[in-house]
Specification:
The complex is a heterodimer. By secondary structure, chain A is mostly helical. Chain A is about 70% helix and about 0% strand. In chain A, helix 3 crosses helix 4, helix 5 runs antiparallel to helix 8 and helix 7 runs antiparallel to helix 8. Chain B has a single domain, classed as Helix Hairpins. The model of chain B has no long low-confidence stretch (mean pLDDT about 90). Classes of the chains: A mainly alpha, B mainly alpha.
């Protein structure tokens, strides 16, 4: 009975979704010239970044990204608060094989370098702070699952995280101090397509990369230690 | 068109899982599926035939050759929030399991309404 009802509901929902989507045929130009067109036209001259998506996220909607970082931070804090039960536990799993251990030790630095590359070049290539941070955390996850007693100090992680978060806010306040608005770009724009371009965008994305990497690493460590 | 169908199927499969499945982890997985489907749908709506990614990596690229950047920026935000939601939901599932020793929603009596 429950399944039939669910299937019926899903059928109705799917039919109407499809009916709405028929008004937006796939691949047709229905780009809003006032918003998306302006972003595409003015990004390089106004922000100095060549990646339009990055410039929207960090420059035009930088305040929104500060809120996004805060949401991630709140989720990590909430998780730690829910999982912490007063006693420290070890990750109780058997040791990985020699091949996995040697391979992950070899790959770990390369993964960290890839993550750093992704967040430093966020204004030039597809990528950015969130993606780079996630790659760095995946490198730490590899070490966690191959070495049973691989230890990361939570104090260092939370220091990195809070420093990076403060750097973001301080860069925003500098905009208020030397410019007119919060997070206004106060640095020279540079030559587009060079590493030193885009004003504040690379600095903010480096801070976000460190913050997300530290946050996700701490989160993975907490979750792995909780599983019995 | 195939992207619309794929994203819609992901959303509907996720909806089915949320409505029918009893295992809490499967419900969280279904929520993740809905999330992924919505991301693909938004990106597909922003796509324009024959155009490229909105990155001016070579000087010859003109704004008229690029797809809509706004849905991509929104989806980047949504992915991060989706990750946070999934992690938090799984944490709550771990705590519920510790308390009730079961993952079956129908056996967790206090959740009935």
């Amino acid at each position: 009975m429950r399944k039939i009802l669910a299937v019926f509901f899903i059928g109705v929902f799917g039919y109407y979704m499809l009916a709405i989507l028929m008004d937006f045929p796939f691949g047709i130009d229905h780009l809003n010239p006032g918003l998306a067109g302006a972003y595409l036209k003015d990004t390089v001259s106004k922000t100095g970044a060549v990646n339009v998506v990055t410039s929207i996220i960090v420059n035009y909607r930088g305040f929104d990204t500060l809120g996004e970082v805060t949401v991630l931070f709140l989720a990590a804090t909430g998780m730690s608060a829910l999982l912490y039960d007063g006693k420290t536990m070890n990750r109780s799993r058997q040791n990985a094989s020699v091949i996995v251990k040697a391979g992950s030790r070899l790959l770990f630095p390369l993964i960290i370098i890839l993550g750093a590359y992704v967040f430093i070049h966020g204004h030039l290539t597809p990528g950015g702070g969130f993606q780079g941070g996630a790659i760095i955390a995946s490198g730490f996850l590899l070490m966690f699952i191959s070495y049973r007693n691989y230890h990361v100090s939570h104090r260092i992680l939370s220091n990195v995280e809070s420093t990076a978060g403060s750097v973001f806010v301080v860069l925003g306040l500098l905009g208020l101090l030397y410019g007119a608005t919060f997070l206004e770009n106060i640095m020279p724009l540079g030559i587009p397509n060079k590493l030193f371009s885009g004003g504040l965008i690379p600095l903010i994305y480096i801070a976000v990369g460190f913050k997300v990497g530290a946050e996700l690493t701490a989160l993975l460590d907490t979750m792995l230690k909780t599983v019995k | 068109m195939v992207y619309y169908i794929a994203s819609l199927s992901l959303i509907l499969i996720g909806l089915y899982g949320v409505l029918v499945k009893k295992n809490l982890i499967k419900i969280v997985l279904s929520l993740s599926l809905i999330n992924a489907g919505i991301h693909i749908l938004l990106i597909a709506i922003g796509y324009i035939d024959g155009r490229t990614a909105p990155i001016f990596s070579t000087p010859e690229l003109r704004p008229e050759q690029m797809v809509d950047p706004v849905p991509q920026a929104l989806v980047l935000t949504a992915i991060v929030i989706g990750l946070a939601i999934t992690a938090l939901a799984l944490t709550i599932v771990i705590r519920l399991y510790d308390h009730h020793k079961t993952l079956d929603v129908s056996k967790i009596r206090e959740l009935k309404w």
